[in-house]
Amino acid sequence: MFGLFLPVYQPSGRLPKKSVNGVYVKDMIEFGINYNIPEKKYIELGNMNAQRDWGYAKDYIEGMYLMLQAKKPDTYVLATNRTETVRDFVKLAFKAVGMEIELKGEGINEVGIDSSKIIVSNKTKKWYHPGRSGLLSLGSSSGPELAYFGEIHPFIIKKLDLRTDNVLGFEIILDNIPESRKKIREAKPQFIVSDYQKVVRDFAFVIDEKYSSGEIISLVKKIDKELVKNVRIFDVYQGDNIAAGKKSIAFNVTLEPKDKTLSDNDIEEVSKKIISTVQEITGATLRS
User: Fold this and answer.
1) Which residues contact 111 (CB under 8 A, 6 or more apart)?
2) Does residue 251 sit within a domain?
3) Strand residues in 86-223 grouped as ranges (E)
4) Which of 86-95, 161-170, 174-183, 254-263 is predicted least confidently?
5) At what angle do helices 213-221 and 264-282 cross, to 10 degrees?
């Protein structure tokens, strides 16, 4: 009667504070930002398999504005025409704040773990073989000890009169493992094969002996988390032609592209980035 019509918009798929299945998007992002605060140890989410048409709120507001400009009433649908799971959104949200989350388990037992928080070092106990054992710790090499592993010391093997040269052992310090409110049941991760050829490149540096193999592996993996598939140490040497307090460490890096075949320029660019990063952070020199 007044010559007016009112567009009715049902919000679905935008990024509000509260989403379906009890998943709080805003709370999840805030948790990622405040992860290092002691009180912020975990966040509980809902159905990780739920799929939504995740859109950008600003785009939806623009769409609402355009609806109001229409000359005649009509039915409008605002969508990206693409759905993603809550699980995928969790990974992207935490990646935005520099955290690489690994999701393990199934159903209500599925948990997300920040893999960068687990550190490997050679600070083992005296009954382990030096150089053939390691320590898993939380946060840093001096953080809470999670587990010891490796070969038992040859002296102990001899004392026990064991008829073998190599005995492996491990210890898990359960009291230092962060508590979970639910029982964790490990699940085999999805095996994804790239359609593009992988590339392997070798590197060798002379580096201060204080740097462990685990620290070098972690450093190189962070250079390009999407492209660097694996880092493997194949030689560590101290002796002739190596200065005191230094060691030679050699490793290969496997590059596995997901969207294209790597060109020579691509490989050269990543190689230069690996060399410069290791040199800048550790003071290492490239070994010819």
Assistant:
1) 103, 104, 105, 180, 182, 184
2) yes
3) 101-104, 111-114, 118-121, 128-138, 145-152, 168-172, 199-208
4) 174-183
5) 130
What is the helix (H) or strand (E) element at residue 232, kind and residue range? strand 228-237
C-alpha distances in angstroms, 198 versus 2, 22, 26, 257? Answer: 67, 40, 38, 7
Average pLDDT taken over every residue of the chain:
77
The size of the chain, in residues, is 288
Q: What is the identity of the amino acid at 78? A: L
Radius of gyration of the chain (CA): 26
Q: Please, what is the angle between helix 86-95 and helix 25-33, to 10°?
A: 30
Q: Return the SS3 of 94.
A: helix
- β-sheet with 128-138: strand ranges across: 118-121, 128-138, 145-152, 168-172
How far CA 167 is from CA of 129, 147, 149, in Å, comes to 10, 17, 11
Per-residue pLDDT, 46: 72
Closest CA to 253 of 224, 284, 211: 224
Q: Rounded to an integer, what distance in angstroms lies between the CA atom of residue 58 and that of residue 38? A: 34
Structural domain for 269, as ranges: 199-286
Candidates 119, 281, 280, 279; CA nearest to 203 is 279
pTM: 0.46
pLDDT given at position 270: 93
CATH number at residue 277: 3.30.70.380
Domain count within the chain: 3
Both tokens of 151, joined, read: 């070969």
**Domain shared by 83 and 141, yes or no:** no
Is 147:123 a contact under the CB 8 Å cutoff? Answer: no
